[in-house]
Amino acid sequence: MTAAGMSRLNRSVGSVRGRRVSRVLLFITAAPLVGALLIESPLPASTRFIGSILWILCLAPALLYSAQDKRIRRPLPFLPSIGIAYGLYFVLPLVLGGYNRYLEIQLNPKVDYDYPITLALCGWLCVLGMYYLAGEFWSRVKIRRAPKPWGQQRIVSWGFLLLFGALVIAAVVTVWISGVASPAILQFVLSLQWLGIAFLTVAARRKLLGRVKLLVFILGTLITIGLTLASGSMAPMIQMGTVIAYALFLSGARIQARWIVLAAAVLGLAMSARGVAMEFRAATWFATQKMSAEERAKLMLKLLQTKTETTGFLPTLVHGADVTSQRSADLDLMADVVKRTPSEVPYWDGYTYRSLIGAPIPRVLWPDKPTKEVGNAFGHRYGYLRWSNLVTSINLPFLVEFYLNFGLAGVLIGMAIVGATYRTLDELVNHPSQDILTSLIGVILLVPLLMLESDFSLTFGGLFLNGMALYAIAYFIRHSGTVTTRLPFPNYPALGPGVASAMRRSARARL
C-alpha cells in the first residue's frame, strides 16, 4: 500500500472513531433532556427549558471537537471540557428537576431559579462569543512554534525526576518549613508531580518503560494518591485523574475496559472520601498535636474503613456521591445569592478581587503580602457560616462572584474576560501545530481551570507565575542534551512491509 493509501486508511479509521465518540456525546446530551420530560418537579417548565438549551450549548464544543479532523483540531479538548464542567456545576441538576441541594439553602423552586439560570445562559454565551471573537485577533498574531528537536527518551528521565523530586520537596516543605511555604508554592509542587505522572503515562503507552520502571511509576503514583488523601480535599485527586486522562488522550490510546474499571474505582474512592471529609477535618483541625502526612493518610483510610464496616460499601459510596452532588450544586448557591443581592446583602463592589493586586509577585519577594480569605468572608457575609467559625471556607464560583460584586454587568463583562482568557491559553499551549511536550505542559496549566467552583483570583491568579515556571521547565527539557531514542513502534505483519513502514512514518510525524 502506498503512503497515500495509508493516509486514507488512517483517516477512515479516525473518522470511524470520531463517529463513535460523537454518538456517545449525542447520547450524553440527549439523555438529560429525556429525563427532563419524564421526571416531575415543581420547577416551572420554562425554567427547565432554558436549562435544557444551556445544557445543549455546554456540550456543543465537545460535539464540534469530536467531528473535527484530528490533523487540524487542538490536541487538548480544553473548551469542550470547560463546557461539560459548566453543565455539571450549573445546569444538569436543574434540568433533571433538582433544587435546594446546596448546604441548607431553601428556595422557592417556582420563582427563584428562573433568573439565575438565565444569567448562567448569558454567561456561557459571553464565554463562547468572546472565545471566538478573540480567535479573530489571534489569527493575525504570528507565534513561533518551531521547537528544537528533542530526544523522546528524555520524557522518561524528566518524568521520574519531576515525580519523585516533587515528592521530596513536598516532604521537606511539610516537615521542616510548612509555616513558611505558601499554599501557592505547595500547589505548584503538586502540579510538578502531575507533570511527572503525565510524562510517564505517555511513555508507558509508547512502550518506553520497562517492567521495573513501570513498577516504580505505579509506586510513585500511589504515593501521590496517598498524600492527596492526606490533604482531606478531593479536588486534587479529581484534577490528577483528569491529568492522567488527558495524557492518555495525547498518547493516542484507545479506551480499554480495564481503564474504565480503574477510573470508576478511583472516582468511587474520591466520592467515598468526600463522605467522611467532615469527620476527617474535625479530627485534623482540632488535633492537640500536628499530624504528619502519613498519619493523616492513615486517618482517612481508617475513617473510610469504619464507615464501610458500619454501613456497608454501597451505602458509603452512595453517601459520598450524595455529598459530592450537594457540594457541586452551584446553581442553588447562585440562586440564593441572586435572590438576596442587593435587597438583603449589598453588592461587594469588587472587594473579592483585591487579592489580584500583586498576584504575580511571589511571597518570597513580598513577605507581608495579604493572605486570601475570600471563602470564609463570603460564608459569613451570606450567613452560611457562624461568626465564630474562622477556619471553614465556602467555595465561591467566579460566575457567582461576578454577580455579587457588580450584578448583571459583572456577569456579562466577567464571563467575556474568561472567554478571552480561554482562547489566549488555547493559542499559547493548545495549538494544532505544537509538539507533545508543549501539550503536556498545557495539561498542567489548563486542568486547574476546570474547577469552576473557585473564585476568579484562585482560578486565574496564578496563571502568569505558573506559566513562566512551566515554560522554564520546558526550555530545560528541550535543551538538556542531545540524546535521541528510536521508539519501539509496533509491527503490522498482516498489512505487509509497505503498510508497516508507512504507519511508522506516520507515527513519527505525530511525535
How would you sum up this structure, described in words?
- The chain has 511 residues and is mostly helical.
- The chain has one domain (3-510).
- It has 20 helices and no strands.
- Helix 7 (183-205) runs parallel beside helix 9, helix 11 (277-285) packs across helix 12 (293-311) and helix 14 (330-340) crosses helix 16 (398-429).
- It is globular and about 60 Å long.
- The two termini are 23 Å apart.
* Strand content range: under 5%
In angstroms, what is the radius of gyration?
24 Å
Query: Count of DSSP E strands?
Result: 0
Q: How would you characterize the largest beta sheet?
A: none
- H/E element sequence: HHHHHHHHHHHHHHHHHHHH
Count of separate DSSP helical elements = 20
Tell me, rounded to a whole number, the average pLDDT: 79
Sum up the overall morphology in one term: globular
The structural domain count equals 1
Distance between the termini: 23 Å
Oligomer: single chain
- Report the structural category: mainly alpha
Low-confidence stretches: 1-14, 482-511
User: Which percent bin holds the helix content?
Assistant: 55-70%
Q: Could you outline the blueprint of secondary structure elements for this entry?
A:
Elements (H helix, E strand, L loop, with lengths): L2 H36 L6 H23 L10 H13 L1 H4 L18 H25 L15 H22 L7 H23 L5 H21 L3 H16 L6 H19 L1 H9 L7 H19 L1 H15 L2 H11 L33 H8 L16 H32 L6 H11 L9 H5 L2 H16 L18 H14 L1
Helix pairs in contact: 1-2, 2-3, 2-5, 5-14, 5-16, 6-7, 6-8, 7-8, 7-9, 7-17, 8-12, 9-17, 10-13, 11-12, 12-13, 14-16, 17-19
